[in-house]
Backbone:
């Protein structure tokens, strides 16, 4: 399927604008100016629509190229402002700092924790957890117990509620916050979710979690083009 059908701009221009926004701390109007220097006239709202459409698509397409993560989960939530209210971005990395999974949630409760763990385990690049390290969020123990009863998570999985062991995921939040803080909040939950999928995908690329034909990806622009079947 042609992902760029009916678009008025060349696919390379669209992907370049989307990649810049998701990879660097740039506003939509910054990208308008950068493209103008290259002879391309485009509005900031058009770029915004591109990000909302192709950010999730990048996340979807890189999944089959992700390297396996370890069975040691470090789980934490960070806050994202949506329509003036705080929402919760669940994130997990392994003991090496590689992204396991992420999920934006309107709530911070047992149901949200269960959905997040299920999403993490269902991803092909992840193993079932041997150990899960979390903070003192009281929703995690009952969520884990319910998933064990449902045989979603192995009975032998150990949960550790030890804050200092979670420094690695808290440090990893910094890149995401660096990208989202200048955005001054999102206008809707859907736009936040779509944008975060692209930001997290680019973050995994930056951390070297993606391989192509058994080799790490060295040129992000070329790889993004490759995902959409475009030549360099």
Residues:
């Amino acid at each position: 399927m042609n992902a760029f059908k009916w678009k008025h701009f060349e696919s390379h221009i669209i992907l370049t604008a989307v990649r810049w926004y998701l990879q660097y701390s740039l506003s939509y109007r910054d990208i308008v100016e950068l493209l103008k220097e290259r002879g391309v006239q485009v509005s900031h709202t058009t770029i915004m629509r591109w990000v909302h459409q192709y950010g999730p698509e990048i996340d979807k397409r890189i999944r089959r190229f992700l390297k396996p993560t370890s069975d040691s989960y470090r789980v934490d939530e960070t806050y994202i402002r949506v329509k003036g209210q705080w929402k919760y971005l669940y994130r997990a990395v392994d003991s090496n700092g590689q992204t396991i999974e992420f999920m934006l949630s309107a709530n911070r409760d047992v149901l949200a924790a269960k959905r997040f763990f299920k999403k993490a385990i269902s991803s092909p690049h992840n193993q079932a957890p041997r150990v899960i390290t979390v903070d003192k969020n009281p929703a995690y123990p009952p969520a884990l117990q319910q998933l064990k009863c449902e045989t979603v998570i192995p009975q032998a999985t150990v949960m550790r509620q030890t804050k200092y062991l979670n420094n690695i995921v808290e440090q990893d939040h910094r890149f995401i916050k660096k990208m989202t803080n200048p955005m001054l909040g999102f206008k809707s939950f859907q736009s936040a979710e779509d944008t975060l999928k692209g930001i997290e995908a680019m973050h995994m690329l930056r951390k070297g979690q993606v391989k192509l034909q058994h080799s790490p990806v060295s040129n992000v622009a070329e790889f993004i083009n490759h995902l959409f079947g475009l030549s360099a």
User: Anything to note?
Assistant: Strands lie at 72-82, 85-93, 99-105, 131-134, 158-161, 211-212, 215-216. Residues 69-186 form a domain with the Nucleotidyltransferase; domain 5 fold (CATH 3.30.420.10). The first helix runs from residue 11 to 23. The first strand starts at residue 72 and ends at 82.
